[in-house]
Every structure is written in C-alpha cells, then in structure tokens.
Amino acid sequence: MKKKRTFREWIKSRDGQQVLVMFLFMVVPLVLLFVFTYLPFGKMFGFSFYNMKYVGERKFVGLKNYIKVFQRDDCFGALKLSLYYMVGSVVQLAIALYLATILSFKVKGGAVFKGFMFFPFLINGIAIGFIFKFFYTRGFVFDTVLQWCGFQLDNLPYWLKDQRINNFSLVGTSVWRYFGQNMVLFIGAIMSVDSELYEAAMLDGANRFQQFKYIIMPSIKTIITLNVILSITGSLSAFEPPFVITDGANGTGTYFIVMHQIAHTQQKVGLASAMAIVLLVIIFVVTILQKLFFKYVFRNAEDEDPLAAKKREKAVARSIKKQERLAAKGGR
C-alpha cells in the first residue's frame, strides 16, 4: 500500500514544486496589479465625489466635481489643445508608414537610418523637453539655422510665446520623438509579409502604390490599428513637452497640466480625480470609435485574408506564364 505523503513532502516533490511555481506566477502579479493599479484607481474614483485636500476633512459633494469639469474653461477647455496633438499623431503615423515602406526593402544604409530615427524614442521625455526648450528659445538653435537659410531674426516668430504657433512647435517635439517607434513597428509588420505576394503582383503588372494598397495595408492592418489607437489616446494625455518646455504658459496648458495644477498647486484633489475619470471615459469612447472606424476601413481586407490573396496572386501569375508560353509557341 502506497504511503500517503505529508504536505511538507508533497511541497518538496516535483509535482508540488510545479504547482507552487504556477500558483506564485499567477497570484503574485495579480496581487501587485490589484495593490498598485485597481486599488488606487478605486480610491481615486471615491475621491472624485468629495471636496477635499490631501490633508484635512472631506465634504461629500456628489456629482458637483464632474459638473465643474465641464463648466470650467481651464478644465474641459484644455481638451481642445488635444486636437493639435491628434493632427500631429496623424502626421507622425504617415511619416512612419512611408519610411517603413521604403526601409522594409533593400536600401543602402537602411540599418543606420533606422537606428537614427529610433534613437529619439530612447531618450527620456524630460531630457527631450529641455533640449527643445533651448532649441526653440529666441536666437538659439532653430533661429540660427533659419538665419543661415536667409531669414531675418526680426521676421521670425517667438516659437514658444506666439499663441498662433507655439502649440504646433510642441506637437513637432512629440512627432520627432515618437515616429521612430511607429516606424520600427511598421517595419516589423511589413517584413513579415510573404515576398511571393510582391512577385505575383509584379507579374500581374501592379506598381509600387498598388502593392502598398492591396498587399501591405491589408496585411499590416492590425499594427496600423494599434499604432493609431496608441497615438490618438496618447495625444489626449500629452504632458511632458508642454510641462517641461513652457510649463503650460501662453495657452499651451494641456488637460494633464491643468489637472496637475489643480491637484498639486490648488490642492483640489476631488476635482482633479473627477478630471481623471472624465479623461478615462473619453479615451475609452475614442478607442471604441477608432476600432469601429478601422473595422469599416478594412472590411474588404477581412473578407479576403492575406493567404487567400496569396493563392489568388499565384493563380494569376501561373495564368500569365501559361499565356506567355502559348504566345511563344504561336510565334514559332
């Protein structure tokens, strides 16, 4: 009769060790996620219903904080600046996709160029802010370069003070930093496309633009959707460039900067918590709308997956070769 093992013996056994490892790998991340993410979020959601500071008594005000978010110009009005960053994210993705399409094929010095373009993403956001703060300062780097090109300093605008252009200057900083990351993601997706598809398309007489439209775009639709969602949601929560470069002055205060000032300078923790919840809801709605939009845009790509397209292109290529052979025999 087999002797029944004690709990200590079972834990020390191979089976017990496997169960213990699986349990720890499953439970520990969930505990950390709950303690450092869901629990603070729940506390913040509770704070949004109170008029309170970090220290002192709390007064329950219900939905008044949420109403104030939409009534105060410095709260909800700051979201208008996100439109600048949304436009910049579209430009950023267009540049990244264009360069990725070129660099996915054999190009002289392509590897070096990829490294240079990806390097800004590796730099800390605060450091980039200080770099561009001096870059845009009157009479410094950017103005000097423009003077070399023939422009007069007196005719140049104040890149960080002029409210007609300062937000575009800050958006340019974000585009410079993040388009390299998007480019690398696009390159990885494009290089995974079967090269035989391009060969079949060339035999069918397709030019480069048609190959991009009918082969590359449908094949990398998942990465395109992911990059657009990350870029648009990121534009809603822009913080580092305007905070470090201008500190939100001269009409550059984004939603996150206003929320930071309300929470830490004015000590209105309840209102700042309500702003965070409102932003979360907006990002959630925007993400759903983007997914629905891309589902509509790529509806034809979903009907015919890349494998089916590959088979169709091969059939066309075989048909063309057969016709060429028949034409060659007829010529004889």
Keywords:
about 325 residues; mainly alpha; MetI-like fold; two-stranded antiparallel ribbon; 16 helices; globular
Could you characterize what this model shows?
This protein is mostly helical and 332 residues long. It folds into 2 domains: 1-36; 74-331, Orthogonal Bundle (MetI-like fold). It is 73% helix and 1% strand. The protein is built from 16 helices and 2 strands. The chain has helices at 7-12, 14-47, 64-71, 82-103, 110-122, 125-136, 141-148, 166-191, 195-203, 208-219, 221-236, 240-245, 255-265, 269-297, 299-303, 306-331, and strands at 50-51, 59-60. A two-stranded antiparallel ribbon has the order 1-2. A hairpin with a 7-residue loop joins strand 1 (50-51) and strand 2 (59-60). Helix 9 (195-203) crosses helix 16 (306-331). The mean pLDDT is 83.
- Number of H/I helices: 16
Average pLDDT works out at: 83
Strand order of the largest sheet: 1-2
Strand content: under 5%
What is the CATH superfamily of the largest domain?
Answer: MetI-like
Number of strands: 2
Query: What sort of overall outline do the alpha carbons produce when their principal axes are compared?
Result: globular
In the predicted model, the low-confidence regions spanning at least 5 consecutive residues are none
